[in-house]
Design goal:
- The chain has about 375 residues and is an alpha/beta fold.
- The chain has one domain: NAD(P)-binding Rossmann-like Domain (Rossmann fold), CATH 3.40.50.
- The strands form 6 sheets. It has a 7-stranded parallel sheet, sandwiched between helices. Strands 7-6-8 form a 3-stranded antiparallel sheet, with no helix packed on it. It has a two-stranded parallel sheet with strand order 10-13.
- The site of nicotinamide-adenine-dinucleotide (NAD) has 28 residues, from helix 1, helix 2, helix 4, strand 5 and strand 10.
Length: about 375
């Protein structure tokens, strides 16, 4: 297949490109090499460069998109601005790339550009669920809304049952959960997914939205201080600097290893599924942020102080855990990587890489100044 990967120079795109090339597909990448992610390295990974058709440009630029769409049979739409916290104050910027970029793509497709496109895969996110699924002892399955700042200020970090306001327990979130994004990034991912399905149906193009959880592994940006908590902690621990952990440290994430994510994405691109499908892509394993910080610090010799600060950011959720059983039933996707094993593979790669720059303090300052980081 001729496959267009938007954002293909990024973390997931680079790994995906390698995997699809190995299977004999032809790859076009459309990417604008966003400096926040790529720093000074404004090119594809050298092993990919000779084998890929590269269109340098913005997803919100019609001309670049039109060039990239020529001959495309499959589209994997990854290009996006991805910082949850940053999306709360760089609103127009996030809207432009994530929504206008997707709208432009469909403007072109409905006008006949990309006439050979027979499948679209879009990178959605667990962020569309907000707090996700919980079980209340009295009211069963519930979906709490965003946690009020006044609760978090008092150290009450756990969401409560939306019916009785009592305690409830986080459980794995299925795809049937309602859309309740608590960040603008999450909202853009929700709308992106809905746009792909709406126009997929109009154009008769089978479409799959992959709701990735927290993806990590070798090759993820060490430069971007706005997202990628494991990379941020790795940069700090490597220098023996203090690692600040928000809330009480017991917030948790479903960290899914890059190879598993690529496996699910390749299966989606080459599948013969018809219609529109939303699928969770997670590891099925819950890891607290504090535990992740401890493992990273231990890897680097334990020189950093880990400080649980009680501070909190608007837009952050308490727990993320995906129910990926539908992806198994639909694509026979199953995560193979355990968190600790994947973490060591990531950290060994990070240690060999140039250190990430120290924009993390600046990113925290930006949020503080805007009243989005408190406590
Ligand atoms: N990494 C994760 O944990 C995660 C989780 C859920 C969803 N996702 C989604 O997966 C996709 C890929 O994520 P990633 O981790 O590889 O991110 P990444 O930041 O490493 O890659 C994104 C790529 O998109 C490019 N890009 C950004 N804005 C662009 C624009 N306007 N025009 C053209 N290219 C542009 C960047 O230069 C970069 O190469 C994104 O859509 C993201 O929202 C990622």
């Amino acid at each position: 297949m001729n496959i267009l990967i938007t954002g293909g120079a990024g973390f997931i795109g680079t790994h995906l490109t390698r995997a699809l090339l190995k299977q004999g597909h032809s790859i076009t990448i459309l990417d604008n090499f966003l400096p926040q992610i790529h720093g000074g390295v404004q090119d594809l990974s050298p092993d990919l460069r000779p084998h890929v058709r590269l269109v340098r440009g913005d997803v919100a630029d019609m001309t670049a998109l039109k060039t990239a769409l020529t001959d495309a049979q499959g589209i994997v739409h990854l290009a996006a601005e991805t910082g949850t916290g940053q999306s709360m104050y760089e609103v127009a910027r996030y809207e432009r790339t994530n929504l206008t970029g997707t709208a432009m793509m469909f403007d072109l497709l409905v006008r006949g550009a990309g006439p050979k496109v027979e499948r679209i895969v879009v990178a959605s996110s667990r962020a569309i669920y907000g707090e996700g699924a919980y079980r209340c002892p009295d009211h069963g399955l519930v979906y709490p809304s965003s946690r009020p700042a006044k609760d978090k200020e008092m150290g009450l970090f756990d969401p409560v049952c939306p019916v009785c306001s009592g305690p409830c327990d986080s459980i794995a979130t299925p795809e049937t959960a309602p859309f309740q994004p608590s960040s603008f990034y999450g909202l853009t991912k929700q709308v992106q997914e809905q746009m792909v399905f709406m126009f997929g149906q109009v154009l008769g193009i089978p479409s799959i939205a992959l709701r990735y959880q927290n993806v990590f592994g070798p090759g993820q940006s060490l430069q971007n201080p706005y997202t990628g908590i494991l990379a941020i902690f790795s940069n700090l621990a490597r220098e023996g600097r203090t690692i600040q952990v928000f809330e009480d440290g017991l917030e948790s994430r479903d960290f899914v290893y890059i190879e598993d994510v690529v496996d699910a994405t390749v299966r989606s691109v080459i599948s013969d599924l018809n219609g529109c499908h939303s699928l969770n892509v997670g590891s099925g394993q819950r890891t607290t942020v504090l535990e992740a910080a401890k493992q990273i610090n231990a890897f680097y010799g334990g020189r950093s102080e880990i400080r649980v600060t009680g501070a909190f950011r608007d837009g952050d959720i308490r727990h993320g855990l995906a129910d990926s059983s539908k992806a198994w039933a639909t694509l026979q996707y199953e995560a193979k990587w355990d968190f600790s094993k994947g973490l060591v593979a990531f950290l060994e790669w990070a240690m060999e890489s140039a250190p990430g720059h120290s924009g993390y303090d600046q990113s925290l300052l930006e949020m503080k100044e805007r009243g989005l980081l408190r406590g």
